[in-house]
Specification:
- This protein has 6 domains: 50 residues, Immunoglobulins (Immunoglobulin-like, Sandwich), CATH 2.60.40; 81 residues, Sandwich (Immunoglobulin-like), CATH 2.60.40.2410; 83 residues, Sandwich (Immunoglobulin-like); 95 residues, Immunoglobulin-like (Sandwich), CATH 2.60.40; 87 residues, Immunoglobulin-like (Sandwich), CATH 2.60.40; 53 residues, no CATH class.
- Helix content is 0%, strand content 53%.
- The protein has no helices and 41 strands.
- The strands form 11 sheets. Strands 13-20-19-15-16 form a 5-stranded mixed sheet, with no helix packed on it. The chain has a 5-stranded mixed sheet with strand order 22-28-27-24-25, with no helix packed on it.
Length: 489
């Protein structure tokens, strides 16, 4: 007997024994074919074999588990193919993956929605073997918003270092103040904490401090010099440009100079921060320091651009802070506006009219509104823009006086124009009445038209033979006396 083997991977062999071994170099599915033959006959048969790699050294690891954020699990293994992995969280199945979705040393992303400690077990198996691995981790929310209530204390007054935070699971705190670690009192329910009460200081000074908040997944830190200061007292921040209390802002001309003034009766190591914001652009920020408060401090601002301006000043030291914001609208007045249109306009219908506005030589007004009365019982209230066209459609013919009231917070102007809407003449017909008449008898010539017979602009012009002059009539009928030897045309 002879046996001819085809292993399905491109290799074959001819043998004289029934049984033998063959090693496939890579996993996969292979169609095996064997033909048995002797001197008188032969027979062929086939089967399919699936070659898999054994799962070896399955090891599950994970990144820190932050609640409501993605946690990445790494499915480590030395080898393995064609496997399925069943995932359990605290003993409860929550996911099934395959060697395609989580290949060896691949990543599985998962989000824990609640704080807690979780044991994650994965069991991976194929037709050869199975292995399991687990990892235990604790999901926590990140610490956010750590801040000092004050960055300093008053001269000659006992004080504490107080802090707050916005969020975070199981936070721990460490305070190093002036080179010594301090015990802290922490209220996790209200998210605030305090140091022990320190003795008052008799002179202006500062102490290095480092406040750290941490948990398993995050940490925040504040490193400053904690100042002992005199309080900024009786502070008054004012502007020389008035603010409208109803509007909440003041109005000024373009290039106006606005000066802010700060008055106070005391304070040490005072920092002043000035901010000028134009529209939605980032603010322009300047700072100055006052070691010991004395005379008033002023700063002028030039509002060189039309539009919204915000002037903000912050006066602070390590113990206290004061802020004031003054808002202004730099505005150009409404003046010397000309109201334009094309007239007369043909009534098709409708009659489409475009109104425009021009101005010279002044700055175009801003923050302005226009109320247009079209003279036909209709009106519109719209934002005013000198570069914009204002279209309107009239639904009837006639003469219309159009009024535009343009206004902003500092001024207004009323302008007018006239629009003549004339109906188009359609299907003009002349009919004599009677159709025939003797010489020297008058004949009425009647004019008929389908459209266009209305409006003050309508005129009829006649021309007759025999050198009769042109005659113009404002009514609807022309009367002609026929003379001997003449005929009408």
């Amino acid at each position: 007997m002879a046996y001819a083997w085809a292993y399905g991977d491109g290799f074959s062999a001819s043998l004289s024994t029934k049984n033998h071994t063959y090693t496939y170099p890579t996993p996969g599915s292979y169609a095996i074919n064997v033909t048995c033959s002797n001197t008188l006959s032969s027979k062929t048969n086939y089967t399919t074999i699936k070659i898999e790699t054994k799962i070896i050294n399955l090891a599950l690891s994970a990144s820190p588990a932050v609640t409501a954020e993605v946690t990445s699990f790494t499915l480590g293994m030395t080898s393995g193919s064609d496997y399925t992995c069943v995932w359990k969280k605290n003993g409860v199945h929550f996911l099934t993956t395959t060697s395609q979705t989580t290949p060896p040393n691949g990543i599985l992303n998962y989000t824990f929605t609640e704080d807690g400690t979780y044991e994650i077990i994965t069991t991976c198996f194929n037709h050869i073997n199975s292995e399991s691995s687990s990892v235990t981790l604790t999901a926590q929310r990140r610490i956010k918003g750590l801040a000092l209530v004050r960055t300093g204390a008053l001269l000659n007054t006992p004080y504490t270092v107080d802090f707050v935070w916005d969020d975070g699971t199981g936070p721990q705190f460490l305070l190093e103040f002036n080179g010594a670690t301090q015990a802290l009192t922490v209220d996790t329910f209200s998210r605030k904490g305090s140091s022990p009460l320190f003795s008052p200081e008799a002179s202006i000074t500062s102490f290095p401090m480092n406040l750290t908040a941490y948990n398993l997944v995050s940490n925040e830190q504040i490193v400053i010099n904690f100042g002992i200061e005199s309080e900024i007292t009786n502070i008054l921040i004012s502007s020389d440009a008035a603010i409208n209390p109803t509007l909440g802002f003041g109005t000024v001309a373009e290039n106006a100079l606005v000066t802010l003034t700060i008055n106070a009766s005391g304070g040490t190591n005072v920092n002043i921060q000035w901010e000028h914001t134009v529209g939605v652009s980032p603010p322009t920020v300047t700072s100055q320091s006052v070691p010991t408060w004395g005379a008033a401090v002023t700063k002028p601002f030039t509002l060189s651009a039309l539009g919204d301006h915000a002037l903000k000043v912050t006066v602070s030291n390590a113990y206290s802070s004061h802020t004031a914001t003054f808002k202004y609208l730099a505005i150009a007045p409404v003046q010397n506006i000309a109201f334009n249109t094309i007239s007369p306009v043909l009534f098709e219908p409708p009659a489409d009219v475009v109104f425009t506005f021009t101005q010279n030589p002044y700055q175009p007004p801003n923050a302005a509104t226009i109320v247009i009365d079209y003279g036909d019982g209709h009106s519109d209230t719209l934002p005013f823009d000198l570069a914009k066209n204002y279209p309107y459609s009239y639904r009837e013919d006639g003469t219309f006086t159009v009024t535009a009231n343009i206004s902003n917070l500092v001024s207004h102007q009323v302008v007018t124009t006239t629009v003549e809407v004339v109906e188009k003449i359609v299907d003009l017909v002349i009919e004599p009445d009677p159709p025939h008449a003797p010489l020297n008898d008058p004949v009425d010539l009647r004019v008929k038209m389908k459209r266009g017979g209305t409006g003050s602009k309508l005129s009829l012009r006649w021309r007759f033979e025999a050198a009769l002059p042109f005659t113009s009539f404002q009514d609807r009928t022309g009367k002609l006396l026929l003379l001997p030897g003449e005929k009408n045309k």
